[in-house]
Design goal:
Elements: H1 12-18, H2 21-34, E1 39-41, E2 54-59, E3 70-75, E4 81-86, E5 96-97, E6 102-103, E7 106-113, E8 116-117, E9 121-122, E10 134-138, E11 144-149, E12 152-159, E13 162-163, E14 167-168, E15 179-184, E16 190-195, E17 205-211, E18 217-222, E19 233-238, E20 244-249, E21 259-266, E22 271-272, E23 276-277, E24 289-293, E25 299-304, E26 314-320, E27 329-337, E28 347-352, E29 358-363, E30 370-376, E31 379-386, E32 393-399, E33 406-409, E34 412-413, E35 422-424, H3 442-454, E36 458-465, H4 472-492, E37 500-504, H5 517-523, E38 525-533, E39 542-551, E40 569-573, E41 576-584, H6 587-599, E42 606-611, E43 614-616, H7 618-625
Parallel strand pairs: 27-33, 27-34, 36-37
Antiparallel strand pairs: 1-2, 2-26, 3-4, 4-7, 5-6, 7-8, 7-9, 10-11, 11-12, 12-13, 12-14, 15-16, 16-17, 17-18, 19-20, 20-21, 21-22, 21-23, 24-25, 25-26, 27-30, 28-29, 28-31, 31-32, 35-38, 36-38, 39-41, 39-42, 40-41, 42-43
Length: 627
């Protein structure tokens, strides 16, 4: 039978029925033994000191808790946002459930600013209705929410600043029986949920479903008798480390009522560890439910009835100085913006570099550009951020298996994919002194091919660059061959030959010093430059100029060093100040001017080419001028 009230195995109204006058006296006695809300040593922990050292349990504060009931706290992995369910008088419609004379459930949000929680606000429609609406699960990045309505689980997605209409999960999750709570795995590919459907080990059991290629939840699987007991399990939460679940149970070895337990999944054996009771002071002789833990492992949140609370049921914060074993994950967060600092909604894909499996697909928030995801330790990750009409951004993060919790702040500026813009293909690799692409270059090449296929009207120059080790002739040849190797790969994989040109610049366009290995590494690169958008149908205007001087120091145009040269122009290029004369429409005219400048004493004069204000290679200019 489905229920429309609080999703826990014991609905909130049952706390009122269960704890009648006599029961409240019993509870008061129990509170004397469990003690007030104070800093306490973790003792009596049947699970073996999961959270070692001092544990301090405090109310989250009256700014969140009210004289009414607050429960089921949900936090983003970085604790920047809190959602919870409440039966306060500001509920949508302002009506009470006539069966129990208490307000209908609604979902509220509070945000953390300077370590303090803001005054909660009702998240409103379309999630909250005139009936019961309870938040039961939140993705680590806070962009997806599971909502309990009328005995079933629904999902809502955050679209910028607006939550969308909740959609009922598939028949594999929702049955004709009751599904109460659910949570996301770290990568959103698995959900864990609670159901009282037949075929389990007890009344309420914990199940899991995986996401199919069609984007649907399928293959419901009971977590087994190591987790589920003949009694009730509920309020399941998967930590962002991807392997540790917390849940409340009336079974296993507990202090009474619902206790919070922990179990860890072993990927090698495919088995869950024996659940460990979190022990006192977290667990009491009453019901302790809806436990969630921050990615850092430093703070937990849950619902409890304790002495000194604000209302019928309150939200508490569990502060832990240390854990027996620190969570092993890296929390990556930041903002994705354009050149103007405006937020960009980018698609983020995370791949296991070893297996090439896609581990996670997510997006940055279109209103803020913010993103957040968790990377469990023990993998080498490839991360790609893409958005329409922008170059992609790619990074590799190799995290050792033993690496403890770490927060990585990484804000990204995406370059527009338009004429004159370029990007370094950072993840192309060649053997020393060779122009053959190494196998580990495939991912970057695939990203490049995808970009080019998504922008079929763009033409590209692929250029090779080196450090200054070796002669100029040697480096020009090597950079040319490497650029040609990349172009040939792109052509072999479906990019039209007419869209590509290549050039080798040797060490003539360095972007860093050659005095350090780090600088030389930056200079050894392949770049991609957009040279034309044929959709714009503009006349191609190639400019030929004669460069007469290049220096790392700016020189006044009135200097005697330019004596004999008329109308000298300055431009900055690759960290150098360069000076040119002339603005001609043909190479023949430019060559004549080059000879004139040599006769006037500018012995290093040579022809340079520009397209729409950007310097390009000579062979690229000649190819464009034929169009």
């Amino acid at each position: 039978m489905k229920h429309s009230c609080n999703p826990c195995g014991i609905p909130l109204f049952m706390f009122q029925v269960k704890y009648g006058l006599l029961s409240w006296l019993v509870l008061l006695i129990l509170l004397v033994f469990t003690g007030p809300v104070l800093s306490q040593k973790s003792s009596g922990n049947q699970g073996g000191d999961i959270f070692s050292g001092d544990i301090k349990i405090v109310t989250i504060g009256k700014i969140v808790n009210s004289k009414f009931a607050e429960y089921h706290p949900l936090i983003s992995a970085d604790e920047s946002v809190l959602y919870f369910t409440s039966r306060r008088d500001s509920t949508t419609g302002g009506k009470k459930d006539p069966r129990y004379d208490i307000y209908y459930e609604d979902i509220y949000i509070s945000e953390k600013n300077n370590k303090s929680w803001s005054a909660p606000r009702n998240i409103g429609s379309p999630i909250n209705t005139n009936g019961h609406d309870a938040a039961v699960g939140l993705s680590p990045n806070g962009q997806n929410m599971f909502v309990f309505k009328n005995g079933d689980i629904y999902e809502s997605k955050l679209d910028g600043a607006t939550w969308l209409e909740p959609e009922k999960l598939s028949k594999y999750v929702n049955s004709k029986y009751k599904e109460s709570t659910a949570c996301y795995s770290y990568n959103g590919q698995t959900i864990y949920f609670v159901s009282n459907r037949p075929g389990g080990y007890g009344e309420n059991d914990i199940y899991m479903c995986t996401l199919s290629k069609k984007g649907e939840w399928e293959n419901p699987t009971n977590l087994g008798e190591s987790i589920n007991t003949p009694r009730n399990e509920d309020a399941v939460f998967m930590h962002p480390d991807g392997k540790t679940i917390y849940f409340s149970s009336e079974g296993h070895e507990n202090l009474g009522g619902y206790d919070v337990f922990q179990s860890v999944y072993d990927e090698k054996t495919g088995a869950w560890s024996k659940p460990s009771n979190l022990g006192k002071p977290i667990n009491t002789y009453g019901d302790d439910v809806f436990f969630v833990l921050a990615a850092s492992g430093k703070r937990g949140y849950y619902s409890s009835i304790r002495e000194g609370g604000s209302g019928e049921k309150d939200i508490y914060v569990i502060n832990m100085k240390e854990t027996k074993e620190k969570p092993k994950l890296t929390l990556v967060k930041g903002k994705i913006t354009n050149k103007q600092g405006q937020p960009v909604e980018a698609f983020i894909e995370i791949i296991d570099n070893k297996t090439k499996d896609v581990l996670m697909s997510t997006k940055s928030n279109k209103s803020t550009g913010s993103y957040l995801f968790s990377l469990p330790s023990g993998r080498d990750y490839a991360i790609t951020m893409t958005a329409e009409k922008y170059f992609f951004h790619a990074e590799h993060i190799d995290i050792p298996e033993s690496a403890p919790y770490f927060e990585l702040f990484n804000s990204v500026e995406l370059k527009p994919a338009e004429v004159g813009e370029s990007m370094v293909l950072n993840h192309l690799f060649f053997d020393h002194d060779k122009a053959t692409l190494k196998p580990e270059s495939k991912a970057e090449l695939s990203r490049t091919i995808k970009l080019m296929k998504q922008n079929p009207k763009l033409l590209f120059e692929i250029s090779g660059h080196t450090d200054d080790r070796g002669s100029e002739a040697y480096n020009l040849d090597l950079s040319e061959r490497r650029a040609e190797s990349v172009v040939n790969y792109l052509i072999d994989n479906g990019i039209g030959k007419s869209r590509l040109v290549h050039a080798g610049y040797g060490f003539n366009r360095n972007i860093a010093t050659n005095d350090t290995e780090a600088g030389r590494k930056k200079n050894r690169r392949v770049e991609m430059l957009i040279i034309e958008n044929i959709e714009e149908k503009k006349t191609i205007e190639i400019e030929f100029k004669v460069q007469i001087l290049a220096t790392n120091m700016k020189i006044p145009l009135s200097s005697n060093r330019f004596q004999g040269a008329d109308h000298v122009k300055e431009y900055a290029h690759k960290g150098m100040y360069k000076y040119t004369v002339g603005k001609l429409s043909s190479l023949e005219e430019a060559k004549k001017l080059e000879l004139q400048m040599e006769k006037k004493g500018f012995k290093e004069a040579f022809v340079v080419t520009f397209y729409r204000g950007h310097r390009i290679a000579m062979n690229t200019a000649l190819k464009l001028s034929k169009k």
